[in-house]
Design a protein that fits this description.
The complex is a heterodimer of chains A (287) and B (96). Chain A has helices at 3-22, 24-28, 37-62, 68-76, 93-114, 120-148, 152-171, 181-188, 196-214, 239-249, 253-266, 268-286; strands spanning 224-226, 231-233. Chain A is mostly helical. In chain A, strand 1 (224-226) and strand 2 (231-233) form a beta hairpin. The longest helix of chain A is centred in the middle third of the chain and has 29 residues, at 120-148. Chain B has helices spanning 34-45, 70-74; strands at residues 10-16, 24-30, 53-58. In chain B, a hairpin with a 7-residue loop joins strand 1 and strand 2 (24-30). The chains are: A mainly alpha (287), B alpha+beta (96). The complex binds fe (ii) ion (2 copies).
Chain lengths: 287, 96
């Protein structure tokens, strides 16, 4: 296997894994405040799935010779990147709906494309993940539907969540094709099978009718069906905000890393005790 | 931190689905011992009733054939076509 191909894959797969893991935090914020027991059980299951996605992906990266400790270190030290969408705050319950609908929706578009990626273990992890994602998106959309059909205040909450999550979601697909060097190389190696702009367009096309159905307005005055292109035309992303958040200056960047570090440190004694116990059992069995 | 960074060994997970005839490799995980690996395997790989039986084995205990040797290792089977039923010319209507 060529070294560059391996390095690129390790970078991409571990970033993807980190994103799944950090992605638990914004929604985890609402588990104890879910409005009903049904919603709480669903949200717990969804967040648990994201932990699972992280694990599948770390395993896939490990087949390339990256160690789990190394990857974890890179995340905790702030050296590794993860999807910047998770550096935004979840301010209301409607955000949980918007995240499932939009963020998981965008992730699905990206991940379906990655099911055909050239590295087998990554592709297989994607297939497994895609099977689980559709529940994530549907539960989110159901929350939006409930709010959109609710009181005036609930409709306002739903609209406000859409307003705040729309643009960051579009940013998830990355820079324009022309500006993305990595992306061209990855297309060449068939790690990436469709370009950032192609995937973004696909997401917009499928999401606009879903917003219409909810009776919510997408916060983009330029958004308009283009008959000739057979696509929705949409406005320009605020690329300065994009760079700022990528550079770790997102509204919640510091909190997210701190939460991960704390979780890792607080779990330290459990790992230590489990290993000590295993060792003791092993000595006993040998005796 | 020191000891808190001690790492947990790697395990391979095999699952048999309800209608599956054999255990299939589904992935790997880190755990301190077999018992913990079993619980993690259940939580990681069977959240939607994907299986009715789990095997776990320490990755370190797996011996794999070497990719570099695969030619000399597997080629001997290639020239033994007579091991396949299609090698034999038998009139079709005999249904043998
Ligand atoms: Fe996920
Ligand atoms: Fe998800």
């Amino acid at each position: 296997m060529p070294d560059d191909y391996r390095r690129t894959l390790i970078r991409q797969i571990s970033q993807h894994a980190h994103s799944e893991v950090v992605g638990q935090l914004p929604e985890g914020n609402w588990i104890t405040r879910a409005p009903t027991l049904r919603r709480k059980a669903i949200l717990l299951a969804k967040v648990q799935d994201e932990a699972g996605h992280g694990l599948y992906l770390y395993s896939a990266a490990e087949t390339l010779g990256a160690s789990r400790e190394e990857m974890l270190d890179q995340l905790l030290s702030g050296k590794a990147k993860y999807a910047s969408i998770f550096n935004y705050a979840t301010l209301s319950w409607a955000d949980v709906g918007a995240i499932g609908w939009l963020v998981d929706g965008a992730a699905i578009v990206n991940q379906i494309s990655l099911c055909r990626t050239s590295y087998g273990p990554y592709a297989r992890a994607m297939v497994r993940i895609c099977k689980e994602e559709s529940f994530h998106q549907r539960q989110g959309y159901e929350i939006m539907m409930t709010l959109a059909r609710g009181s005036k205040e609930q409709r306002a909450m739903a609209q406000d969540a859409l307003n705040r999550w729309w643009w960051p979601t579009l940013m998830m697909f990355g820079p324009h094709d022309a500006e993305s060097y990595h992306s061209q190389q990855s297309m060449h190696w068939k790690i990436k099978r469709q370009s950032n702009d192609e995937l973004r367009q696909k997401f917009v096309n499928q999401t606009v009718p879903q917003a219409d159905f909810l009776g919510l307005a997408i916060p983009d005055p330029e958004l308009e069906w283009n008959e000739e292109r057979g696509h929705y035309h949409f406005g320009e992303i605020d690329w300065e905000e994009f760079s700022r958040v990528i550079a770790g200056k997102g509204p919640m960047s510091r909190d997210r890393l701190e939460a991960r570090r704390r979780a890792h440190e607080e779990g330290g004694w459990v790992r230590e005790a489990a290993l000590a116990y295993a060792e003791k059992q092993g000595t006993r069995a040998a005796a | 931190m020191g000891k808190t960074n001690q790492h947990l060994p790697l395990w391979e997970v095999f699952i048999r689905s309800k209608r599956g005839l054999d255990h299939k490799h589904v992935g790997s995980l880190h755990a301190a011992d077999a018992e913990q690996a079993m619980q993690y395997a259940r939580d990681t790989y069977t959240r939607r009733s994907e299986g009715c039986s789990i095997w776990i084995v320490r990755s370190a205990d797996i011996h794999a054939s070497q990719a570099e040797d695969s030619a000399s290792f597997f080629d001997p089977a290639d020239d033994k076509v007579y091991r396949h039923p299609t090698f034999y010319d038998i009139p079709e209507d005999l249904k043998i």
